[in-house]
Design brief:
heterodimer, A: alpha+beta, 8-stranded mixed β-sheet, 21 strands, 63% helix, elongated, B: alpha/beta, Rossmann fold, 6-stranded mixed β-sheet, 4-stranded antiparallel β-sheet, 7 helices, 36% helix, 28% strand, globular
């Protein structure tokens, strides 16, 4: 019996392959977007883990000196005293427009030089003095850089790092006689350390922490994409059940028990989910492979985190993808099965009945939507953090989606009451009748549109703010990085009579309220007063900084530690009031600025080899040429602010390439949802079209009405999606960004973008409705006549 | 064989309580043919649906071969429909995704007693041999009804319940289809209960009962 019943159920798909294809594709697309995001996240995390494991850069004990480096002489003395420590000189330079980390080690003492296992032993290689070791992909990118020592490929080196002998690192970083830190090789007692030095256990790789927000954002996008997909799957499965409602009734009338029928349908559903999930994984892999290079660029630009460009097949995301496909099918199928359970054998068997029943629930749906939105607001009020922010987002978006059918129904009712001619009245009434069958697809479209509006508003607002911030922050025309302090002093002296101002860029590392931070010192100069992007400031901010009576902190630090004007910050044991907060979109870490004298007083002899130069624009090229000719500067040691801005803007644009791509994909999926629904509703359209046709409307006119109806519904949906998207943008800018990155951005409105997006939505709807409309235009009259003959 | 004993059935339609059947009793012997007539809304289809174990009743009892319907769960009712009964609906209820040939064999397969030779004989007698490879939607109303009847008889049921089986057919076709159906049930010893509003059809069946206002006349 089961086999026979199954055969009958399966035969439906043989006769309606389009429905089967749309069902599988809907679920596959949903899985694809989700698994693509998961694949990217998994790959990035694997890269971080690899970086931690390779070359012993995992959790390790190190000795450093707060606020500065360790003198080579100190290290030599410690070795003589029997300390088993290895010296490391580490710093970052810009090569070919991207930052790379130079790690200088002592080949005889550093454990990385004895890496064993699958990777080759580096010791011998390091003895070839002057070589730089890096992963092959980095070497390929740096092959054209002039003045670099010979490069040698080694897969054991972490991504984005150049490992070399410490003497080569000194030359490249322009730091002579200074070490970043010492690696502790044997256990020591912190009490034995010389004054000024400290022992700490370093999470060798804090990339995981830094990038968590980024990945959470991506995951949220993945969920959103899956949510949109779920609407499609829900619609497709629901309609697939409804289309077979007559068959279910027949099967039950012929003696197939309800439980057996539900079991068979559940197995069928799970089978379809596995097939669709597998297809989705393949598609997801392709999407992830296409997006990964941009994600890698984003992570590198934002956090300096390196991710391999190649995508591996990882069990974690494969299982996650399949689980979501099965979960999605179960969620979508449970409702349909529950309906089947309640279905009396003698109930009516048309899609229209189902559609009418669905329509009855729109009011209840809207109430649930409002409740969801309220729950989101409550979650944000009760809990802090990014998860609460995303709960608010989910509540708002899902709530708005659930309210959509009722809103559209009201709009159509208004239109109907205003319509005068019989055809117009039929069009409005027909649109209302079709609404329940299309509502899931329209919800998907609204989610996609609202997300597009929200994210594009956020990105464009961010872009405007960021560009303005760059112009302010990069006020100096030229930036110079000398090889070391000695060369720095020489350059400074040489430049003094030739430029308007030499602004030293000196900094020390410290921990502010437990967080690693960089403390900058500035000299007294009008440039800062004119250009520094202050968000909050004491009226006498610059005077107080110069007098050593206050500290400026960046926005990230202010939000994370809740430090604002007048609050106290402790720097190197000295408490100082906050006299200003400045925006800082260039890095995710805490920063502070104090007067140069105070910096030197608190942190001693901090390096002085980086300068910003104020030069009349007309003389920039000449000064630059002279500097390059006269001084042996390290690679990337001389850069105009235009170049820095260009690189920064490129990094910014890269950051949102993935978001843009996911946006476009989500919109595409939503367009597909409309197509799916229209095609699935096709068979139920004939009984509605036939009477109008028989009354004198041509098939062409009816086809145009079909197309127009879809466009009208898409336009109404877009109309509702814009305010929802703006709400989403507000949450992104004022809640999510603050929690994730520590900065709050002003919101700008871009009506042109909305118009463009609405246009895109209409095109998507037209494309989706085009085929069904064409079918209406070409439907043979005999088929329409059958509607009357068969008394369906 | 089939015994209906003081069965009542009512529906709630909004605020109204509508009593469709009021203590109906009826007996049908094995191999017997019975026509149930009545005006529209008299409750004849409802009574047939109760006899087919498609719907529950409020009070009374229905037994088939001694088995009481009230003691059956969904599985038991389904088994009854599958193995003992066969139904012919006014609206055919064919499986649109199966060919005519597969539809005719479908119920017999579900009952676990497919007999292709008998099915072919029934198909031939009902004039459907040339249509077995076609889809139901490609057939006329009369052809679809003949397929529904063939499906029911091919399953060799003990009791065939037919609800207005010729209601959608023209007079000539209706007469032909009815004659064939009566002939086939006589040959197989199948009991037939036919619901109709047509006096002419009822007269051809033999025994007839009339239902009016939920009560048998």
């Amino acid at each position: 019996m089961t086999r026979v019943a199954w055969g009958a159920l399966i035969s439906h798909w043989r006769r309606q392959p389009l429905q089967l294809v749309t069902l599988i594709l809907g679920l596959a697309l949903a899985t694809a977007l989700w698994s693509a995001v998961q694949a990217i996240n998994a790959e990035a995390r694997a890269s971080y883990a690899r970086a931690s494991e390779q070359l012993a850069t995992g959790t390790q004990a190190i000795i450093d000196r707060p606020g500065g480096g360790i003198a080579l002489a100190t290290y030599a003395q410690m070795r003589r005293d029997g300390w088993n420590v290895a010296p490391v000189l580490q710093g970052r330079i810009v090569l070919e427009g991207r930052q790379v980390t130079i790690v200088g080690i002592d080949v005889l003492t550093h454990p990385a030089a004895a890496v064993t296992g699958e990777t080759p032993d580096l010791t011998e290689s390091f003895l070839a003095e002057g070589r730089l070791f890096a992963r092959p992909d980095l070497i390929a990118r740096l092959s054209g850089v002039p003045d670099l020592p010979p490069l040698q490929a080694n897969a054991a080196v972490p991504p984005g790092e150049l490992w070399t002998d410490i003497s080569v690192a000194e030359r490249l970083l322009g730091q002579t006689g200074q070490l970043s830190h010492l690696l502790v090789l044997d256990p020591i007692d912190a009490g034995d350390l010389a004054p000024g030095l400290r022992l700490r256990v370093e999470e060798g790789n804090d990339t995981v922490q830094l990038t968590r927000s980024f990945h959470l954002n991506l995951t949220a996008f993945g969920f959103l994409a899956f949510g949109v997909g779920l609407f499609i799957v829900h619609g497709a499965i629901g309609l697939a059940f409804e289309q077979r409602r007559a068959l279910f009734r027949t099967l039950r009338a012929l003696g197939v028990p309800l439980r057996r029928l539900m079991l068979v349908l559940s197995i069928e559903l799970l089978g379809l989910a596995v097939v669709a999930g597998a297809l989705g994984l393949v598609l997801g892999h392709l999407v992830a492979a296409a997006l990964l290079p941009d994600v890698a660029a984003t992570l590198r630009g934002l956090y300096g985190a390196e991710v391999d460009g190649a995508l591996a097949l990882r069990p974690a995301w494969v299982l996650a993808g399949l689980a979501m496909a099965l979960g999605g099918a179960v969620v979508a199928g449970t409702g349909a099965l529950a309906k089947l359970r309640r279905l009396p054998i003698l109930a009516g068997a048309t899609v229209v009945v189902w559609a009418e029943n669905a329509g009855l629930g729109s009011r209840r749906q809207a109430m649930a939507g409002v409740a969801l939105a309220v729950l989101g607001v409550i979650a944000l009020a009760l809990f802090d953090g990014l998860v609460a922010g995303f709960a608010l987002l989910a509540g708002l978006l899902l709530g708005a989606a659930l309210c959509l059918p009722l809103c559209l129904s009201l709009m159509l009712r208004l239109g109907h009451s205003a319509a005068s001619g019989p055809v117009a009245q039929w069009v409005w009434a027909d649109a209302r009748a079709q609404l329940p069958g299309l509502s899931l697809a329209l919800m998907a479209l609204m989610l996609a549109l609202a997300t597009n509006v929200g994210v594009s508003t956020m990105v464009s607002s961010f872009r405007l703010t960021f560009t303005g911030w760059l112009d302010q922050r990069l006020a100096a025309e030229l930036y110079v990085t000398a090889r070391d302090d000695a060369q720095g002093a020489e350059i400074e002296a040489w430049l003094a009579p030739r430029v308007q101002a030499v602004l030293p860029i000196r900094s020390a590392g410290d921990r502010l309220n437990g967080q690693p931070a960089t403390i900058f010192g500035i000299i007294e100069h009008q440039t800062y007063r004119d250009h520094w992007p202050l968000l909050q400031a004491d009226p006498a901010v610059w005077a107080r900084i110069e007098a050593g009576e206050g500290v400026l902190i960046n926005e990230q630090l202010a939000y994370r530690q809740d430090l604002w004007l007048g609050d106290q910050v402790t720097l190197a044991g000295q408490s100082m009031p906050v006299v200003g907060v400045y925006s800082d979109y260039g890095n995710p870490n805490p920063q502070a600025i104090i007067g140069m004298d105070t910096l030197l007083q608190l942190y001693g002899d901090v390096p002085n080899y980086r300068f910003g130069l104020r030069v009349p624009p007309a003389q920039v090229d000449a000064v630059r040429a002279e500097l390059a000719e006269r001084f042996d500067l390290p690679p990337g040691g001389l850069r105009a602010n235009t170049e820095v801005k260009q690189v920064s803007k490129a990094v910014f644009e890269n950051t949102f390439v993935v978001t843009g791509a996911l946006n476009a994909l989500t919109l595409g999926v939503a367009g597909f949802a409309i197509l799916t629904s229209l095609l699935t509703l096709w068979t139920s359209r004939l009984p509605q079209i036939a009477p109008v046709w028989s009354l004198g409307l041509t098939r062409r006119t009816i086809a145009l009405v079909e197309l127009g109806r879809s466009l009208m519904l898409a336009a109404f949906t877009a109309l509702i999606a814009v305010p929802v998207g703006l709400g989403l943008a507000w949450v992104l800018l004022n809640v999510i960004n603050v929690e994730a990155f520590g900065w709050r951005l002003p919101m700008f409105l871009f009506p042109r973008d909305w118009a463009l997006l609405t246009g895109l939505a209409l095109i998507a709807a037209a494309l989706a409705a085009g085929w069904p409309a064409w079918r209406v235009a070409r439907v043979p009259p005999a088929m329409l006549l059958k509607v009357f003959a068969n008394d369906r | 064989m089939l015994k209906i004993d003081t069965v009542t059935k009512s529906y709630d339609t909004g605020a109204q309580h509508h009593r469709v059947l009021q203590g109906v009793s009826l007996h049908l012997a094995a191999g017997e043919a019975l026509a149930l007539t009545g005006e529209s809304g008299s409750g004849k289809s409802t009574l047939l649906h109760l006899a087919a174990a498609l719907d529950g009743f409020d009070s009374g009892e229905i037994t088939l071969n001694g088995a009481a319907y009230s003691g059956l769960d969904d599985r038991g009712r389904a088994q009854l429909r599958r193995e003992t009964l066969a139904l012919v609906f006014q609206q055919f209820s064919l499986v649109p995704s199966l060919t005519v040939g597969d539809n005719i064999l479908f119920h017999a397969r579900l009952a676990g007693r497919p007999d292709p030779a008998w099915a072919a004989e029934v198909t031939r007698r009902l004039g459907l041999s040339d249509l077995t490879g076609r889809w139901p939607e490609a057939l006329s109303g009369g052809q679809q009804q003949r397929v529904a009847i063939a499906r029911a008889i091919a399953a060799r049921p003990q009791l065939l319940l037919a609800d207005e089986p010729t209601g959608n057919l023209d007079e000539d076709t209706a007469t032909r289809v009815l004659d064939l159906m009566l002939e086939l049930v006589r040959e197989t010893g199948t009991a037939l209960w036919l619901v109709t509003h047509s006096e002419a059809v009822a007269q051809r069946v033999g025994r007839r009962v009339h239902l009016s206002g939920g009560v048998l006349a």
